[in-house]
Every structure is written in structure tokens, then in C-alpha cells.
Amino acid sequence: MTTTDYGGHFVFLDLSSRSPITNRTDTVSMTNFDTNRIALKCETVAISTTKDVLAMPIPFSGIISGEANTQPIDLGIASKTITLGGVITEQQISKQFKADDLPKNKIDATVDVGVEDRTYTDSDGKHVIVNMTAQEICQLIHSYVDSSAGQFQQNINNLIVFIPSRVGNDFIYHEVDAAGDTISPVIGKNTTVENCPLVPFNFGVRNGSGFVLDGLGTFGGGSAFPKPLGDATKYNKIEAIAGFIRSFDTTFVGGQPYVEFNMSFEVARGLV
User: Fold this and answer.
1) Model confidence band, residue 269 (pLDDT cutoffs 50, 70, 90)
2) Which residues lie closer than 8 Å to 186 by C-beta, 6 or more apart?
């Protein structure tokens, strides 16, 4: 099935509590797409990749050839920054903690009896789903940016930006999504952008099944070009962009139900 969006959003922030690397029993089940994840309504996403190459002028090159030359020394260094701009609206926030951290089976009295989401905490006192105002979402993100990696329920360490894609990791049009399902209708050159499956943007290359194609000359450790996510209930381990929020700016306007924001996210993956 071709995926077009996830709840009308294409950009998400992930908390480190979603990551299995924390190795904690209280981390979120990876089958819940929206838990410990914040959606952003972005109008602009600016991606900057700056390559740092040492340029060494070659002495006497102009005397010998009549043309001065410079020797580039590529040490494999680049800095990557993603700048986001848009609006934050009220949204549903889903969080998972340790068992008994929350009141069990809490009732929302504003919801009619018999409606499925009238109970907004689970029977274990572990999972909660609440609707927050746009201003509350801003405060939440500001408080998270103000934290450190030690607070894994606050630390935002991944950015997800979905983009439309026709061509897979092997330079063949997408045929199967990350869940193993056949993509239908088939993808080809005549597939419109609106009908293309979505993949998370990353800095990986199309390296086929190993270090071939664009991956020729690499020795491992890098990202591969991702597959379309597809059915998030089957598989939602997303190849997100690892890093941290460098800055987060918001503007509150009286009487305005949404909040405009700007965010600078610095890509920092590390070697592990």
C-alpha cells in the first residue's frame, strides 16, 4: 500500500525513550507509531551540508605552469544542519512511562460514555494519551531542549522528515516496503509525486545489498537509503536523523490558536 502521510504530518521529533539502545524495560513498544514522538507542521525544511576540505596552496605552481594550483585534502569531514519553520497546533500527545507512574484507567469526563478514548490512561498506569494546546506543545519542546541526554524521557535525539521517493536502495523502483508488503499500485517513472511512497530523509547512499553501487569504496558504518515505512503497525523502526536541537524559537500571538516556530537541528550521529 502506498503511504501518503502519517496523521497529516511529515515531520516528527523522537525522544530517546523510543530507542531500544536505552535497554530499559520501561521503553516504549515499537509498535506504537505516535508514542514518545511529537509531530510538527512544517512549511519549510532547509537542509544544509557543508563539506570541510583543507585547501593547501601549492608553492611555486604558478611559476612552473603559469597557473597557481591548490591541493585539496579531503579528511571526510562535513557538518549538516536542518532548519525547520512552520506552525504548531494542538495535537494528541502519547507518552509511555514505567508501570504505576500514572493513575490507572483515568476517565475524561468531557467524552461521552461508550466512546473508545474516554479512558486516557491504561490499566497499568503506564501509557497516557492527552490533547495539548499549541502553547503547551511549545512549552513541552522548550523544556525538552533544555534537558540533557541523561533525561531519556525528555531528550530529543532524532528527527524524521518524510519525503516522496520512487527509487529504492538498489536503484530499482520501490517494490516492497519496510514491513515486507508489496507496494500497490506499482511504482515507476509515471508515478506522480503525490502517489509516491514516503521514506525518511537521511544521508545514506544507495548501496544495494552491500558496499556496491554508490556504496563502492565504503567500509561500513554508514546509513543505507531507507525503504518506505508502509504499515506502521507491522514495522516502524524508522531510519531517523540522529542529532540534537541547537535552537528552538516560538512566537506567541494573542488570540491566535497556533504558534509559529523556527528550529535548528544539528546532525550528530557519532561512530556507534
Assistant:
1) confident
2) 173, 175
Mean pLDDT calculated for residue range 105-119: 92
Strands, E assignment, 58-149 = 70-88, 91-96, 127-132
Domain boundaries defined on the chain? 11-51+72-90+133-267, 93-132
Please tell me whether the peptide bond between 200 and the residue prior to it is cis, using omega within 30 degrees of 0.
Answer: no
Provide the pLDDT confidence category of residue 19 given band limits of 50, 70 and 90.
low
Between 177 and 23, the more confident residue is 177
**Sheet strands (E) in 89-200:** 91-96, 127-132, 156-164, 198-200
Q: What is d(CA 100, CA 77) in angstroms, rounded to the nearest whole number? A: 46
Q: CA dist 242 to 11, 30, 144, 208, 250, Å?
A: 14, 17, 16, 22, 23
**CA–CA separation, 30 and 232 (whole Å):** 9
Question: Using CA atoms, how far apart are residues 6 and 88, in angstroms rounded to an integer?
Answer: 16
In the chain, what percentage of residues exceed pLDDT 90?
Answer: 70
* pLDDT band, residue 210 (cuts 50/70/90): confident
Q: How far apart are CA 36 and CA 23, in angstroms?
A: 16
The region, left, alpha or beta by phi > 0 then psi within -120 to 50, assigned to residue 40 is beta
Per-residue pLDDT, 5: 59
Collapsing DSSP states into helix, strand and coil, what is residue 140?
helix
Q: Is the pLDDT of residue 272 over 80?
A: no
Contact 128, 102 (CB under 8 A): yes
CA distance 170 to 210: 10
Residue type, 37: R
- CA 26, CA 5: separation in Å to the nearest integer? 29
